[in-house]
Structure prediction request, 874 residues.
Amino acid sequence: MSETQATTVNETNYLNASSTLRSWLLTVDHKRIGILYLVTLTGFLLIGGIAAGLIRLELINASGRFFSHETYNKIFTAHGVVMIFFFLLPSIPAVFGNFLIPIMIGARDLAFPRLNLASWYIFVIGGVFGLSALVLGGVDTGWTFYTPYSSTYANSHVILTALGIFVAGFSSILTGINFIVTIHKMRAPGMTWFRLPLFVWAHYATSIVIVLGTPVIAITILLVACERLFHLGIFDPALGGDPVLFQHLFWFYSHPAVYIMVLPGMGVMSELIAAFSRKRIFGYTVVAMSSMAIAIIGFFVWGHHMFVSSQSIYAGLVFSFLSFLVAIPSAVKVFNWTATLYKGSISFKTPMVYALGFIGLFTVGGLTGLFLATAAVDVHVHDTYFVVAHFHYVMIGGAMMEFLGALHFWWPKMIGKMYPERVSRAGSILLFIAFNLTFFPQFILGYMGMPRRYHVYPPEFQLLHRMSSLGAGLLFISFAVVFGSLLWSLVKGKKAPANPWPAKGLEWETSSPPPTFNFDRIPEVTEEAYAYETLFGDEPGPTS
Amino acid sequence: MAYTGQHVTSIRTYVTVFLCLMALTALTVWVAFMDLGFMNTIVAMTIAVIKALLVVLIFMHLKDNPKVLWIAAGGAAVWLAIMMSFTLADYLTRPASYLGGW
Amino acid sequence: MSEAHSNNLAHHFETMEQQKQASSLGMWLFLVQEVMFFGGLFLGYVVYRSMYHDAFIAGSHLLNVKLGAFNTVVLIGSSLTIAFSVRAGQLGRNRQILGWLAATLVLGAVFLGVKGVEYAHKYHEHLMPGPHFHYDAAQHSAGAHVDTEAVDPHKVELFVSFYFAMTGLHATHMIIGIGLIVWLMVKAARRRFSSDYYAPVEVFGLYWHFVDIVWIFLFPLLYLIGRH
Prediction:
């Protein structure tokens, strides 16, 4: 540690090693590719966010004042497609997984660096397809593309969007394969499976879900496109095709996709909680295995999206029961993080604020998921704002909060600059408040019967909708503060030391930013992850 | 650590496997023209699985490969089975008029 | 030997063995996703066959068993030639690699040619799915053991949709495979391979065998199980 930490100010690192545009666009360095993804995804987040803003703007009034029905359909579809397929699914793995996995396991790069760059280009091509569909007039099917509307009746750019999702899906698959091979074959000497940081375990589990699930959505969405292009009648009721088969195929992927979005966030969570409690994570093995359990059980529950389709009630009962099982490993994680806090020496740095926010919001999102997995309750709240609120608590409260937590935690490592702590922390707290103001009223709205995807609604819902829109406005301000302060730090931030928090992990033992090949010498790992007692000696933080 | 390539399979083995695959192909075509009722489907699928196993184990060298590749190959088969069986769990428990037979 | 090591060992690997294991595992994982990719189509086929048994029997009589069986033999033969190519790679014999790759290329092209003949036939008989689809039970499904006159032509169109989706996706994989064979042949002609470095041939072999396996299932499902 002493050797690598003694890097001097003028050291070349992966950022300043070369500065031409060409050197960025043809890079095979996993860290630079992570940065490319960060820039691309921030662009998509902005587009998806603008669409969200337009939705909330429209819903301020019960009469649907600003947009036509068709335009509103296209706006919420744009929001869903961009946020899910082009932001949340790649978000943490593509940026932080790419940047950190090789460093965390003590490797010089991912197993297939050129494939990694190809994945980014494939993602960009998919994004261009998706965005050109938006520019040419949009899609109005909802992000779920239910047939036969999407395959037969919709008069919008379904084919182009479908191809975009298909192509972007292969970017995910190739990244997933790259991660699994890297974790299997590239670990440094001494880095045994049970010394891996939990971030790496979470990405391993995520990659398995990606490799097993994503091809199914790829073929499904391809068939929808072929149905429009070549009249293949696979989901066409006129030929005897079954739209419910589409739903089976769609949700076989799209339910596990929820875990693709949230599992990496859970990995980030373990790093943050341990670092800012200055303690070993409570029950390391159980937390690692619960990631694997979520990945596997997550494939057995998809039918709970289809209780009110013509799915047989017997299958519905089985899916309902299995959906409760997946709550167990999720709860195990939440309990273990909470137990880690116990008697820790906690510091409320910005990433920790996001982490603590995650615990609360994810618990609300997860528990309301159990309401929805109960078939009888689901019949009442299916396709209402209750569902909308539920998945935003999981997606934003879970995945998004951890994306921001990770961004602040590893920002000094990635960029080499410190973000302004007080402004960023204020931003994170404002974001937490604004999020709840936006989405909690939606639980009540949904329970009272407000359906999703409608822009004209009875006037008695107007007050709650206005609260939600006010929250969305605040959410915009808080995002502006959060990203503004990060941008500010790019120029004016203090130079970051190698280990600013300080935290354990190989990524903190190399310089900030790291050199191009991560380590001068491949490190030898001699201790378990989160051995904070060795970092702080006999400081108060007790060991477990 | 017998990884692929460390072990060179003999030409004789490859040719034998190829001839087995040819024989099974002839068998499956021959059986297809006999009326065995729903057993036709089962026989055809059984032969296809045997052929696939021959290709995977010997042509693709899985039998000489480490456990992790067995897990990958087995995982694919198991996950396909999960997708099929849970979806069919829906279709097969719908009202009987839905189905037309095998 | 050490020369070959330094040329072909990428900077981020420690040993040739590690590099080879990584590429092999990577290709197997890619095939896992291929199984699920084709799996969605197979699932659809299984569901509809259970629903529309008689129509699918009538549909399978539209296909030519002789051509299907011939193609099965051709494709399994190409699996044998690519296996020989990988074997030549293990022994580091570039000329043999090249020869067996060429044989595989020819067999693959024959398969696609026969497939093209079958497609053209369907086109002339108005059996492509879409507005021009026309199914005539007496003409197309003579000899089927189910009452083809009672079969809904729409459901037969559904079968034909699956036929084209499944064989089309399979043929696409073969076309990509043939492109890769050409690339490998160029490398072999330049004597780039050795017994230490032949991983590209090996992982391509895995891919090609997988394409063969898909056909091993497609042939009975589409051509055979409704024939008796």
Notes: The interface with chain C takes residues 102, 107-113, 115, 173, 176-178, 180-181, 184-186, 211-216, 218-220, 223, 226, 230-234, 238-242, 245, 248-249, 517, 522 of chain A (CB under 8 Å). The mean pLDDT of chain A is 93. The CA atoms of residues 195 and 529 of chain A lie 5 Å apart.
